Amino acid sequence: MLAHNPFSSSRVLWTTSLEGRPSFFPGMEDYQLVSASHAYEASKYESELVACALDELESERNNGVRHLAVHPGVAGTNIFLEHTGWLLDKLMFLAFYLARLLGSKHHPIHAYNAAISVVHVALVSLTVLPSLSNFGVTREKSGQPPEGASNGSTKTNRAGDYSPVRYGAETNIFGTEYVGVQPVEGYEEHKEVGRELVARCNRLYNAFEKKFKM
Prior knowledge:
- This protein is of the alpha/beta class.
- The protein has a single domain (10-132, 163-212), classed as 3-Layer(aba) Sandwich (Rossmann fold), CATH 3.40.50.
- It has helices spanning 39-60, 81-101, 111-114, 116-123, 187-212, and strands at residues 11-15, 66-71, 165-171, 177-183.
- A 4-stranded mixed sheet has the order 1-2-3-4, with helices on both faces.
- Helix 1 (39-60) crosses helix 5 (187-212).
- It starts with 10 loop residues before the first strand and ends with a helix.
- This is 3-keto steroid reductase.
- Residues 137-162 are annotated as: Disordered.
- Keywords: Lipid biosynthesis, Lipid metabolism, NADP, Oxidoreductase.
């Protein structure tokens, strides 16, 4: 559907996490994470691999659909307030501020500030994002066009020199939020795993569709 819309630069955003690391991924023998000891972290890393694989596959089809990984950094919510209570909730926020004071750039703390990565990547022109393709993750900064980028069509093949990144909400010590860029860890070692995850998800969907005659 996105590939046939009248506008260019269609994109799908995959919300991942700072905790999404290859060390938590149990392997394809448990890709549904039934027995995984760190299922949340593993699921977020799988999301990054799937996003990268789909982005490459769309590139090979030479259409303008992009799949981009984003994360909110570390933000406090009241999701556990009922279990932790008022005091522990306030201590959690205090710990977040202390981490930022000690130099962490990954603590936007408030949900409004943490949303900057998703909003930015959803709305900004792809030409001003650090590229996931030819330009890699070298010296480009968020909000600045990669060297050599044009304002033309984004429907170019990215598979030749693909270096995927994820976009995250970051902040300075004073709490001013901005969008940071980090490489997807272990991408080269898990490149084929991402494609296999996509293939297995497609098979599951097709089986579900056939069973329930959707």
